[in-house]
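User: Assemble these into one structure.

Assistant: Restating your components, then the assembled model:
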Amino acid sequence: MTYLYDDPARFKDDVIGGFAAAYARYASRVPRASGFVRNGGPRKGKVSLVVGGGSGHYPSYAGIVGRGLADACVLGDVFTSPSAEQVYRVARAADGGAGVVLAFGNYAGDRLNFAAAQERLIAGGTDTRIVYVTDDIASASPEEKDKRRGIAGTATVYKIGGAAADSGYDLDGVERVMAAANAATYSYGVAFGGCTLPGRKEPLFTVADGQMEFGLGIHGEPGVRSAAWMPAADLAAELVGALLKERPSDADGRVAVIVNGLGATKYEELLVLYGHVDRLLREAGLTLVLPEVGELVTSLDMAGCSVSLTWLDDELETLWSAPVDTASFRRGDPSSFPSYEPVARADADDDPEVGEAASTPVSRQAAVTARQVLSAMNDAVVANEEQLGRIDAVAGDGDHGMGMVRGMKAALTAAQAAEHGGVGSVLRAAGDAFGDRAGGTSGILWGILLTSVGVSLGDTEAVTPERLAAAVRHGAETVQRIGKAQIGDKTLLDALFPFVTSFEGAVAQGRPVAQAWADAAAEAVRAAAATADLVARMGRARPLAERSLGTPDPGAVSMGIVLTAAAEVLKASDTCNN
Amino acid sequence: MTYLYDDPARFKDDVIGGFAAAYARYASRVPRASGFVRNGGPRKGKVSLVVGGGSGHYPSYAGIVGRGLADACVLGDVFTSPSAEQVYRVARAADGGAGVVLAFGNYAGDRLNFAAAQERLIAGGTDTRIVYVTDDIASASPEEKDKRRGIAGTATVYKIGGAAADSGYDLDGVERVMAAANAATYSYGVAFGGCTLPGRKEPLFTVADGQMEFGLGIHGEPGVRSAAWMPAADLAAELVGALLKERPSDADGRVAVIVNGLGATKYEELLVLYGHVDRLLREAGLTLVLPEVGELVTSLDMAGCSVSLTWLDDELETLWSAPVDTASFRRGDPSSFPSYEPVARADADDDPEVGEAASTPVSRQAAVTARQVLSAMNDAVVANEEQLGRIDAVAGDGDHGMGMVRGMKAALTAAQAAEHGGVGSVLRAAGDAFGDRAGGTSGILWGILLTSVGVSLGDTEAVTPERLAAAVRHGAETVQRIGKAQIGDKTLLDALFPFVTSFEGAVAQGRPVAQAWADAAAEAVRAAAATADLVARMGRARPLAERSLGTPDPGAVSMGIVLTAAAEVLKASDTCNN
């Protein structure tokens, strides 16, 4: 159980507030973002390592911000990826001009959001690389290592990357060595019991009495294989045996070892297990380098543990052994790192894309319309929540309506809160909130869509029909590029692109915006209905989708519904009736 | 639940083995003892800080051995004090010649065992001081701070003492500053759920759904006051409010703050609580110095947390802020401490009192008799287990028979394992095992009794009747002095002292040892029966005893039983029939 909280919906924010108060000696908050930047950073000429993911994994990620490790971290809600907007803001605040590496565990939501942030950072002139960690051997075969999840091996990969960045590696070098560390890192874990989210009474999963589950997830996912409880000696043999089977052919026998506890499996237990792990690895002829036994990547109060091996070469060993000084992970004397000249930090407030102060009256007027549009969209998804759930339940988990309502409500609230912003700021705030709160892939893509449109429209220029058309085109293409789905994959794109094409065409013909939008929305609704005739081609964004013939895609349907709701507002609006 | 273990009875040993394997870079095992000495120690001219207590509290105590903190730690079984013998062995191994401070939380068992070890260390020429920590404000009134238990505030007191010792303070100075730190340290905690011992299915206690208990213990004791669950903000106000009520009059407003998790109450929760604690303390005008939020003193997988404040002056602030480098607690650069020349470590093997190699044939022959005596004593307590339990159940918890059986069995096993030892080594091994395994005050005192007799008899000289009489006299007086009970307090002393007096008198009159022992044992049995007529005077060793008139003291009865069993062996033995 989780017992210490106030409003469960604000848990992440309260955690961030507590960390900021306790560990001001290590890091400070990024204004208007759920994240921290290392004290004294960013620094001139130093690559910045930005790590992140959902909350609930402390000391990952705030606890590992500091010298020799991360320059910054960005935190989502519990077990939820931070939004692309949040990643973008934190990375900008951490950028010292030598480039940024965004690092995270391999989960669909994180990949989407960090990729969207990467695009914007690159567009803004910051060379940005992505390293996602794939250490969990239980989650995919050795041939598909790239599809494996990131669990406690993230700690080693980040440590090695952080040491490289602080040692003066350039961006290519940090990216290369982190990729090498990830390729060399293998973890295997076991779950004894699930964790309980703040405010909930029941754990996310349970393990039957006397049983355990191999292949733990760190977000409340159950294991992949059940087994009867076994003594620590036998468990160690299972875990180590599986890890040694994947020993890389070029490994010379040096390994970094982590025995990680998930939360409720405590230190003495981990030490008992480590005793066996240590013996088995030595019996296999290996040399153990600075093992760590403790809690590096937790999952609230989950019961379970994992063993991680990173096969070291000279370079990786040097970096694994390098000093580090963070709130949770300290080793050696970090003053041995070269020092860098600090540079002024680009906080969100300084961001020309965000600054409310820089908005013009004409953009603020457009923002009023944008809020009305979001309000109408919200009404529409609330009215259709049950229907969307029913459609989604045919081939999915039936939560699409609920997710859209959660996202739209959050987007509307955020848009209303940004009361002095131009239209760009308002839509970015809405997209940020949508991506944060809706959950699921479609929530993330909706967040990216709203944010991209906001970035395109900006806070100064008037929203002409041509600029609006270009903005929705840009948004749709961003969603497609980040989501990696194709038209015809039975996704929201199947409604969005027909809308964009129709709207662009009508605008080019000089038709009134409201009419153009209404006609395009009708086109989207027709296209959404037509997805019933498609068989999903299992696009990369939805690797597990098995959509049945005869049922339309719920994401496409909700897209049609909200675009139609927007049309009603535009008809009544002066701004767009020119 | 505890899930990772092999044989639950060997849990402590397996933990120690795992720590030794994982953290050889910080500490190494003391041979034949459950403890660790810091690498490179002991050092010439440096006071040694030895901390210890039961297992189940990691990172206390092995995790805090290292530069700037403890020189050594000694570990008992889960939630059980280490035996006096173990404390003695570890402290000897840590002694660099400048004196030793033994530090522990204020629990009856720890006080008895550490006091017994202190006696022997002083007798052996090592100036030894004791500091026990009394930070838990829930466990006694402010007027009785000396009776309070030690919980997470131990972390601050040890940290300050360790910094003083590494900074070059002399023994008086380290003792003084640790006493000052303890006087300045106040903790208050709350429990949400009990922990589960290795191998058990049920927790040591449960907290009703929706409830919490203020005043947690760290050994599975329930709280002292139940309350309905409350949000973190309200809980922080309760905890901080109670702590601020005890602000010392001379405190200038600087405080070290620890928010400590007991095991299953995780980091993000602790950070949420810390956010409120921080705010409340600042609102009270305080200056917070290097707060720590995490797990410093755990209780297996117990759910709960505590807040500790240490009111700092210049000296305490300097020491709290000083560098430290241990497996679990690191801060700053410890190379700033003065360096000391290492001295050869006195391990148990080098101990002239222990060395089996140094035993003489005559002493080894006496050891054979000692083993036979222990075997007969074991048979006797097994035969009387139920009866002893019944007597104990009248006014106690009914476990006296079980404890005696556990202790005697362990003592016998240890005596048999010391197959090449003289009588002194055999009895010391027996006493060590008895104290470790029996549990409870009488188990500890039995351990001290056997060990003291063994120390007196040694491994070289013949066991003459006079030496035997002097040894049991020394043993009885040691038990009385350490246990702080008086004759007539309804304890095992009420049978032991009549035995000693009778035996001494008979020996002085030149009567055969076996007969003298048998008569004295009969005296002990009569005296034990007569305790039925005593009303316990609530001796300090048994502060909670309320023995009813008409029931004999179970400890005195079992003393009579085992002394009688020994008489049977002596009658048949050549060694003592001279």
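The first helix of chain B runs from residue 11 to 22.
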